[in-house]
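Predict fold of Methylthioribose-1-phosphate isomerase; 364 aa.
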Amino acid sequence: MNSNYKAFWLEGGDLVVIDQTQLPFRLVTKTLKNSADATLAIQDMTVRGAGGIGNVAAFGVYLAARESDGDLSKVKELAAVIRRARPTAVNLMWAVDRLLLVLEKAALTNQDLVTVALKEAIAIADEDVIGTRQIGKFGCELIEAIAKTKPQGEPVNILTHCNAGWLAIVDRGSALAPIYEASDRGINIHVWVDETRPRNQGANLTAWELGQSQIPHTLITDNAGGLLMQYGKVDLCIVGTDRVTRKGDVANKIGTYLKALAAFDNQVPFYVALPSSTFDMQIADGIQEIAIESRSADEVLYMQGLQNDQSIGRVRIAPLNTPALNYGFDITPARLVTGLITERGICEASELAIATMFMDLLPL
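Predicted 3D structure, encoded as tokens:
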């Protein structure tokens, strides 16, 4: 199993994952022993990020096979529960469906389903490692081009929203992959990190990742990005995504749409980085067809952090009788997206460009 998975690994046949709800204050792990553990880890955001969810879902099907004693119908039953764990990230459904297709073929020749499932889950993760490296290289070309236009000593300022690093997709992530590649090449960069309310994945995860790699960064409030763009302090926006339609509409963490609007108004390039498994070629209109997850109101009403006694706790920030609405994602229309950074190259966020580069993914 590849050492570059970083956020999860196998131990004695079980899947061990970093508990991302404890970061950045504690680096702790959870051991997933069965499909129910995998489902819960996805639902409670122990693991998150489109790619990471897909990986854990794939290994969840492997765990389902292990607990089903070779009964394919039982595996399918357990896999269906995993598939419903979260509604927006298409990698989840894609990974489960891919595993089940392989298992159905294996059952016809009486192969061991546990062995086959494990091999396929590892194959998906290995493909993601290669993919994130390619996303990094293609995206870094954009950063490198901007760097050549900057006065000597000035960094390329990149704004990102939510977390799309190796905690979200194995090895290098999607949105952070070009940043890691640029750092490796010695390009002078600085990252504006949106806090990403309400769960603060930017403050908790992106800032932690960049700190681990000693990449210069500054945490900002979610609503500061537009002002920074007006001041000319943002050269490039790169975000990840949980689903992209065949016409290029992008579902990503709530607040992405507003960043795209600000970028459009200030002529700042706005790129979306993704592996091809994040395309949903079955749908065209993101606003009408993508199911947006509505999460617990408590995520808005409370904030979690490190207390004075060094314990992790939460505090309520709204009156006791105040209701809250908590949509997890929003849709950025293709017209606001400068381009899509994929493992195959950079393409326009348009139906023709996507179909040309990803013809093999189109529905028959």
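The CA atoms of residues 136 and 178 lie 4 Å apart.
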